[in-house]
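Input/output pair, single chain:
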Amino acid sequence: MIDLYHEVTRLDNLESACRALFGTNIKPKTIIESNIPTRRSSYTTLFEATDGAIYSLCFAHGPLVLADVRRIIKDFDTGPVKYFAPQNNAEYFKDFGLKAFKNSFPGRVLNSEDDLSFYMSLAPYNPALVRLTLKANLSKYITADPLLQKKKVQL
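Output:
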């Protein structure tokens, strides 16, 4: 009974965090794995939503930028479908990249979006919410519990 209460509370907290931090209405169904160490001071929680999509919620005790999150997702042997910007601001990464570009090169004119890609990757992104492709190979992050392994491999 306590485990069920704990699980429901974690799912509710996860839904509340996604709504408050990213302005999304994601409804978590199950937590695949929580608090996976992904860097020296960063952790990731993987969960499945009611629509069948798999999400990654990354957080760190220190700074975390978009480039770090991209690397974490790449380490999962999967790709991102969508990076959710803080407060559902669709232009967050682009605005930060443009500002950083202008600070670095005050007199230079932006020729293409490719010029911004590096500067966009420097945008602070802690916590980070990413929708993952369904081809995610999460086997190396699964705990040693055989019941969990069987459940998670089927995802």
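The two ends are 25 Å apart (CA to CA). The chain is about 40% helix and 25% strand.
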